[in-house]
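R.M. (postdoc): so does anyone remember the format we settled on? I'll just put the structure tokens first.
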């Protein structure tokens, strides 16, 4: 049965600034300012991703894992000691309420130490690299995406199209402004957004003990 979910979204500001002295800018190669812009964008992107995963919801984006851990008896969270094939199939089953594609999120250490050595029930490697695309695929056909916001040993499985809404009031922008009196340039990255899980049933979390 279809149900409607009401989610109230506000706007949370994210910003970072770097001050570049004119003397440094004069000595820098032309690519330096472009590097600063890219670095600010990457750092802001990480902060936003961290909040989508674990934001408190108090003057911040509400995180997926925050909501999963707040549920009574945490039905969508399972712990493991040594990752097994059955751990992953359990996580997949916990997200079976909605039709649609799943995505599996891990950080790089978890991928290489926990997932890459995993085998199915007949001893075949479960995860392999697809050279045609810039991601890793599982034997389940579920794409794996690297997410640095997750801790070592955390494996988040979900259907984001059903389980999360993110509202951008201001897309990520990087601007610069010369401060003549101080002889420096301010390079500022800024964005404004809010997000909230729409249902926990679209997500499952595996945690390493």
């Amino acid at each position: 049965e279809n149900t409607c979910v009401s989610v109230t979204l506000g706007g949370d500001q994210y910003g970072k600034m770097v001050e570049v002295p004119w003397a440094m800018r004069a000595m820098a190669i032309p690519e330096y300012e472009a590097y600063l812009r890219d670095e600010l964008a990457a750092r802001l992107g990480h902060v936003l991703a961290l909040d989508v995963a674990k934001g408190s919801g108090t003057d911040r984006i509400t995180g997926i894992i925050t909501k999963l851990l707040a549920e009574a008896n945490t039905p969508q969270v399972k712990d493991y000691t040594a990752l097994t094939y059955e751990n992953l199939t359990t996580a997949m089953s916990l997200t079976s309420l909605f039709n649609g594609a799943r995505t599996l999120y891990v950080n790089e250490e978890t991928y290489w130490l926990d997932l890459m050595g995993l085998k199915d029930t007949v001893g075949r490697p479960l995860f392999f690299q697809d050279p045609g695309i810039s991601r890793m695929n599982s034997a389940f056909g579920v794409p794996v995406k690297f997410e640095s916001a997750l801790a070592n040993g955390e494996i988040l499985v979900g259907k984001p199209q059903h389980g999360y809404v993110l509202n951008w009031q201001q897309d990520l922008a990087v601007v610069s402004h010369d401060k003549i009196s101080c002889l420096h340039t301010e390079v500022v990255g800024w964005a404004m957004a809010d997000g909230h899980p729409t249902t926990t049933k679209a997500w499952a979390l595996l945690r390493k003990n």
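R.M.: ...and that's the designed sequence above, right after the tokens. Also worth knowing: The radius of gyration is 21 Å. The CA atoms of residues 78 and 206 lie 5 Å apart.
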